[in-house]
Amino acid sequence: VQSLLVGDFNADKRADVLLCGNEYGSDIDSGRQDASSGMLLLGNGKGHFTPVPAHRSGLYLEGDYRRVIRLKVVENQFFYFFLKNNGRGEIMQ
After folding, report:
1. Helix or strand or coil: residue 57?
2. Is 50 helix (H, G, I), strand (E, B) or coil?
3. pLDDT digits (tens, 9 = 90+) for 47-80
4. In this structure, what are the phi and psi dihedrals at residue 74, rounded to the nearest 5 degrees?
């Protein structure tokens, strides 16, 4: 995990976590760390989080992602900008 963002992603007034990552710049002995495609974890308000499968969340990030940023477009409408190392970023709603 290279970056995480805490917020209420399913409008239930509980903190959730959005993760992105991978590491392509590892040394030659350990190889690339590239098993992550991003993850949305929904919180229950009591410190427990449940992963949401990609087919439900719509989140599938393939590559060396380093950062996620929340962009407020208008009141209560956000976009999420995922920054990729040496590549094009992605915007998701």
Report:
1. helix
2. strand
3. 999 999 989 988 888 777 778 888 888 887 888 8
4. -140, 175
Helices assigned H by DSSP within the chain: 54-57
What does the radius of gyration of the chain's CA atoms come to, in whole angstroms?
14
Separation of alpha carbons 5 and 1, rounded Å: 11
Distance of CA 60 to the CA centre of its chain: 9
**In the Cβ-directed half-sphere of 42, how many Cα atoms lie within 13 Å?**
12
Helices (H), 23-83: 54-57
Phi, psi of 51 (to 5 degrees): -70, 140
In angstroms, the CA 80 to CA 5 distance is: 10
3-state secondary structure of 53: coil
Q: Answer yes or no: pTM beyond 0.70.
A: yes
Is 68:5 a contact under the CB 8 Å cutoff? yes
